[in-house]
What does this fold into?
Amino acid sequence: MVIVKASKEEKEIKKQKMEELYEYRKYLYEHPKLYHLFLEVTSRCNARCEHCGSSCGYEKPKNEISKEKLMETLKEISEHYDASEILLNVTGGEPFLRKDLFEIMDYAVSLGYRWGITSNGILIDEELVKKIVKSKMSTISISIDGLKETHEAFRKVPGAWDKIIKGIKLMLNEPSIECVQVTTVANKKNINELEELYKVVLDLGVKYWRVVNCDPIGRAKDNDEILLDPKGYRKLFKFIYEKRKENKIVVDYGCSHYLGLNMEKEIRDQHFFCMTGLYVGSILSNGDIFVCPNVERRKELIQGNINTDSFVEVWENKFKEFRHERRTSCDDCLACSHFKYCGGDSFHTWNFDDNKPNICIKKIYKEEKDDSDKKRKKKKSEDKFLVV
It folds into this structure.
């Protein structure tokens, strides 16, 4: 059954909003605005996560971008745009493994930037928290991908769970940190633990829980052992919807995927809008200038490199692949009246070889409807033989 059945009036309101976003997206093709700059400060990681979109490893790469070049680029950007309007999203790998991280971020703050970080949480201790507070970090997202045994197996780090829980508690005790968020990547191995995990998050006192599905990117690509099937998606969305109704904490699905007019705005606060190349840019760990770091890192999609190119010039004059209506070879997309709302769905799950989306949530619900119709017809047929 469909989790949410929006009324005709509700659908019209959502449709109107999606129409407005469609027109705004077309405006941004010509007038992009840098609001989120991802800094992948390292590809080195102390975990070996099954779903890692960047396929990070243990060793420090030889071509890791220098502190000096990162600072120079941040200064250049601040001279052309209002740095206070740009949030630096620091990622990795595991960002806290970079020894000069706080030197870079102290400099960024002096230029007017705000910054937050995505971390696996393993390295957070009292000493690190002191550096975090001093550097005026405003947000942090820490990953918990299941209960203790499941999480440690999924991230290949025995003994990590207790360290992470302790780290979250330390972060929550610091009032200067605006948002401490837990992020969970739902997959086949933890989908049945979400209810218990919800209690763990509540007991910790976390106010923001981001729950997303595992997407077919990086190490997870074509991995049926962890990728959700349609039944798993429906279970995930039902769970998020019910927890949002409880309203004990903010539970949010995040930005991935167009959900259809029934589900839009029901399991996250905003309507779907892929901001890649429009609001979002990134500097990868080797200096490459890119869009959302989760997008497939194809050579032809890399826009430049800060070692040789001006980030501002690249942002203003390139990214052409991401600033027009996507063409698709998908017959279902071409026949779908919602295609202009999703625009081909998230770029990070776009199939650039076949020019079609790898995931269609709307299609998942159509399959569910078709299954339900078949069951109803079968039951109706069986009922005929029960008449006496």
User: Anything to note?
Assistant: The first helix runs from residue 8 to 30. Confidence is low (pLDDT under 50) at residues 370-376, 378-388. The two ends are 31 Å apart (CA to CA).
